[in-house]
Design a protein that fits this description.
This protein has helices spanning 24-48, 51-72, 78-95, 101-109, 119-129, 136-146, 152-159, 163-179, 189-211, 222-238, 243-256, 282-296, 303-316, 325-338, 342-356, 358-366, 376-388, 392-405, 409-419, and strands at residues 9-10, 13-14. The protein has 421 residues and is mostly helical. Strands 1-2 form a two-stranded antiparallel sheet.
């Protein structure tokens, strides 16, 4: 709303997300924030018809909780406490702004239930945040802010961009929602395919950034990956008849289940062939496969399900040598039929090298040289194939190019070890 001071702090102190290294009470508060932020925003958007105001009062309510709960304890019904606080805050803001007297009357007469908002409200909020009229960067930022309760600073830190840039994206996105009259609703059946694809793309991008960061600060942002899983689980709960939602959720869980073996004690990356599979989370793998089976039972295969099936084959193999490369090749061929892209072709070529040898794989990789020249994993994969074919000079050149393009510290360290190896 124009003219209101933007909130991101209370009493000069920024609203900070709590880390797992803090006390059990603080961790519990953080969990409540994540669970309730989307519910609060959804309920207020429905009541007020004003996304900007709804999001602002939710942030203020979380600030109030952050100040009081660690001292007073978490209320028996934290959602009700937050809803009451948010409603009072919204009324205070509207009373001071004469332009919004009509909204004030609506809010004062409305009954905002302190109980969890109905599932459809949060689903409407997710689809609003991921509307195709918004850029993908704006969709990600708005989803993290409104649905997952992230602050602007946290989003900027997660994606390694300036806080002002994120704030600008969020402001522009909310303005676009108003100017383009983007509706607060779940899409109709004829729109669902395209719109659901957008939602899943945002969650997939978010998970990938957490699972293997593109930036130079940390190798993995487990908190971001976990929040992507939480959001995917929420969508799966709200849309249990959508197999691709389950496919994406299974893919995320199967990948994260192997996290403990991906880095050694010094933080160095450990590639899949060398990983200690005893460190893999077998119950989580079983859960991911069960979710994938549920999706498969709906008999509507999609790209996320196929990627999850590939991850499942890797997760089920007792050793690297026992990996079923033939089945993985068949799955990649199916994936190309549904979602052909240079990166999918690169991954298929890597699988081909294990199935048919490095020479045919290098031919397919070289075909991608123009489209993937700016992608560090293209050059590192090409270097591995050149080494196997006895071309150390060309392999070194490829690794140097990969190093130029790569920022992730663990990946850079691995490339340097290979260069000096």
């Amino acid at each position: 709303m124009a003219g209101r001071r933007r909130r991101g702090a209370a009493n000069g102190r920024p609203l900070e997300r709590l880390t797992t290294t803090q006390t059990a009470t603080d961790a519990a508060v953080s969990a409540v924030f994540r669970e309730e932020a989307g519910r609060l925003t959804a309920a207020l958007v429905r009541a007020l018809g004003d996304f900007d105001l709804a999001e602002e009062v939710v942030q203020d309510s979380l600030v109030a909780a952050l100040e009081k709960w660690p001292k007073q304890g978490i209320p028996e019904k934290p959602g009700a406490w937050l809803m009451t606080t948010a409603r009072r805050r919204a009324i205070d803001i509207l009373r001071r702004d004469k332009r919004y007297q009509e909204k004030l009357v609506i809010l004062e007469l409305s009954h905002l239930s302190p109980e969890p908002v109905e599932a459809d409200d949060r689903l409407r909020l997710i689809f609003m945040c991921c509307h195709p009229a918004l850029s993908q960067e704006a969709q990600v930022a708005l989803t993290l802010r409104a649905v997952a309760g992230f602050t602007t600073a946290e989003i900027a830190s997660a994606f390694l961009v300036a806080e002002a840039t994120v704030a600008q994206r969020i402001v522009r996105a909310k303005r676009k929602i108003v100017d383009a009259h983007i509706p607060y609703r779940v899409p109709e059946a004829r729109e669902m395919g395209e719109r659901l694809d957008g939602v899943l793309s945002v969650l997939y991008l978010m998970f990938n950034e957490g699972y293997l960061s593109r930036g130079a600060q940390v190798a993995m942002r487990r908190d971001i990956a976990d929040d992507a899983i939480w959001l995917a689980g929420l969508v799966a709960k709200l849309m249990p008849d959508q197999p691709e939602v389950l496919g994406l959720l299974a893919l995320m869980k199967l990948n994260v289940a192997r996290s403990a073996a991906r880095f050694d004690g010094a933080g160095e990356m450990v590639l899949l062939p060398e990983q200690d599979r005893r460190l893999w989370d077998r119950p989580a793998i079983a859960e991911g496969i069960d979710i994938l089976d549920r999706a498969g039972a709906m008999r509507a295969t999609g790209p996320y399900q196929i990627q999850a099936a590939i991850a499942a084959l890797h997760s089920e193999a007792a050793s690297w040598d026992e990996t079923d490369w033939h089945q993985i090749m068949l799955l990649y061929d199916a994936l190309l039929q549904m979602a052909d892209s240079p990166v999918v072709r690169l991954n298929r070529a890597i699988a081909l090298s294990h199935f048919a040898g490095p020479e045919p794989a290098l031919g397919e990789v070289n075909d991608l040289a123009i489209t993937l020249d700016g992608y560090h994993l293209f050059h590192s994969a090409r270097a591995e194939l050149l080494v196997q074919l006895g071309e150390p000079v060309l392999a070194r050149e490829a690794r140097m190019r990969a190093l130029e393009l790569c920022q992730n510290p663990a990946e850079r360290s691995l490339l340097l070890r290979k260069l000096h190896g």
